[in-house]
C-alpha cells in the first residue's frame, strides 16, 4: 500500500466530498454503460471481475447482479462506507499500483488511472500483468493526442482538495500499447471508451 496515494485518494474521495448521485458516475448516468459492459463481458466469456477503484459502488453494485463481482479501493472512507451501506458486496481496501489482485477474469479500471502520474500508471499495468487476471478493461481516451505527466506535489493542493488529472491514450507514446481487442464508447466514436486488452497482447511489452 502506497500511503501517500492512500492519503491523496482518501482526501479527495470520501462519502462527504463525493456526490455520485448525479453525473457520469450516477446510477442514471451509467445505465447504458452498465448494459454495454455486461454485453461485452458475455461476448468474451468473462464471468468474474475485480473492480479496482470501486469508490462507493453507487452504480457498480448493479454489475454484481450479472457477474461475480469483487471491488477494491485505496480510500478507507469509501470502503468503510460500502461495508456499512452495502455489506453484501465483496470489497476491500486495495492499492491497484502495488497490492496483489484477487483471482478474476477481468480487471476493471474506470477513471482511476487518470489520477495517477506516469510512474504509477506503469505500476498499475505491471501489477495487472504480474497477476493471474487475463483481461483488463480500462478507461482509454483516444481523443488525447499527447499524454502528459505530473508530480503530485506540484498539482495537488491539499487545502483545496484539487485532484491531479491526466487522461491517457494508451495507444500513443509513452505507452504505445496494441490496439484493444474491444471497447465500449462512452461519449461517441474516437473519444473516451472502456477498452479491453488481453494479457497475451503484452508479451515482451510489460
Short description:
This protein is an alpha/beta fold and 206 residues long. It has helices spanning 3-12, 31-43, 76-85, 118-129, 152-155, and strands at residues 48-52, 68-73, 90-93, 106-109, 135-141, 182-185, 192-198. A seven-stranded mixed sheet has the order 3-2-1-4-5-7-6, covered by helices on one side.
Percent in strands: 15-25%
CATH topology-level fold name = Rossmann fold
Low-pLDDT segments, ≥5 res = none
Helical content stands at 10-25%
User: What is the strand arrangement across the widest sheet?
Assistant: 3-2-1-4-5-7-6
Average of per-residue pLDDT values = 89
How are helices and strands ordered from N to C? HHEEHEEHEHEE
- CATH architecture grouping: 3-Layer(aba) Sandwich
Q: Radius of gyration over alpha carbons?
A: 16 Å
CA(first)-CA(last) distance: 21 Å
Number of domains: 1
- The global form is globular
> Major sheet, described briefly?
7 strands, mixed
Total number of helices: 5
What's the CATH H-level superfamily name?
Vaccinia Virus protein VP39
The total strand number stands at 7
User: Which structural category do the helix and sheet elements fall into?
Assistant: alpha/beta
Return the CATH class.
Alpha Beta
